[in-house]
Amino acid sequence: xxxxxxxxxLVQPGGSLRLSCAASGFTFSSYPxxxxxxxxxxxxxxxxxxSNTGGSTNYADSTKGRFTISRDNAKNTVYLQMNSLKPDxxxxxxxxxxxxxxxxxxxxxxxxxxx
Length: 115
Fold this sequence. Notes:
By secondary structure, the protein is an all-beta fold. The chain has strands at 2-6, 9-11, 17-24, 33-38, 45-50, 57-59, 67-72, 77-82, 91-99, 102-105, 109-113.
């Protein structure tokens, strides 16, 4: 199982970014996927999750209405569209899959929201 995140960077408050997570090593279309984030000095927290078909999504209260999780099963990729970004969104963002009861994480991508 391999997960590779990309798309992070420095953005001003109110700006947007789209993160991508390319997956390999498992049947991507059969597994729900999640995005998490971890800010300095804080615990890793769930940002959003999506079912294997993409028909069901869930969001943390702090990201509802601003973030959108989606997936393209033909490309084995899950996305996180982030709009109206705030300084509090600054963190390393990770994608995760649970495969045979084990958590697999990507290496993370840094998102910094600052003027």
